[in-house]
Amino acid sequence: VPMPVRYTDAPFLLPVENVLTITGRGTVVTGAVERGSVRTGDRVSVLGGDGEPVETVVTGLETFGKPMESAEAGDNVALLLRGVPRDGVRRGQVVAAPGSVVPKRRFSARVYVLSAREGGRTTPVASGYRP
Does the pTM of the predicted model rise above 0.85? Predict the structure, then answer.
């Protein structure tokens, strides 16, 4: 499998994998930076919920417990977000550079499902399947 291309010049995008609360500090989201880069002090938007995007500022950034000034595509990070309540963000949402992502409700996709011989599924995927 070839190494993935790291899109460091594109606008920042982080799919949220986990959400934590640090008492006295605020809400932390974790995930792998999909594209671009982010620094402490950068303005970002939290998108993908039921309402409008939430604008906030990155007030802290860590990777594996070590404070960092910046992170770029491919890095696993934890972002401390100013003024975002714990219930205001959840897994599956994204944190992105403001104005760089437009939420959609529908999309088309081509999906390749690995066969059992390739290490994938042993049963077929039927219409309406949910993991």
Answer: no
